[in-house]
Amino acid sequence: MLTRLWHVVWIVCRITLRQTFWSKKTIGMVLLAGLPIGMALLQRLFADMGAQQILRFFPEAVVYLYLLFIGMLFALFYASAVVADEIENRTLTYLLIRPVHKPTILLSKYIAYLIGSTAIVLPSLLVTFLIIYTHPKMTGQFTQGLLHLSHYALIVFMALVSYGAVYILFGVQFKRPVLYGLLFFGWEKIVLALSGV
Length: 197
Known about the structure:
By secondary structure, this protein is mainly alpha-helical. It has helices at 2-21, 24-33, 35-46, 51-79, 81-88, 92-96, 102-133, 142-173, 177-195.
């Protein structure tokens, strides 16, 4: 029973990965994930900064770029789309006529979103880390930086998990989940600005 369940999860997950991440949208999202890499390269090549300023760049990039911007947008455009695209393409009926429970289908699509998003966002985080921590002024900081990288990678992954759950809920509940997702995205930014963070 359990092996059949995982077999179904794997098949739906594989199909969802192919449909969702082999699209034109992914090119834009990969470029978006490359934004921190470009900023780190510009900072390394052109900014005359001390070691402390360089050390501050990575946590700020993680918080402001990966958590508050990239992670949310990946969840918005991929997690909300895994169900909404099935409805829009009128292929949800074909999934639902199979003898598979609806929660299993949703779980499979959620796992596919996590695999695809993590495969794009975390390598971007790693490259950004390497650009910053291999700076000539950062001698002796690399091993401590690896510990920071593991913490930040876990935090970014948890952001993808939590935002993905919220946006998949939007995809299931609403007819236009991206619109509601953008409202949530803007609301969260307004709350952050008003709180002074």
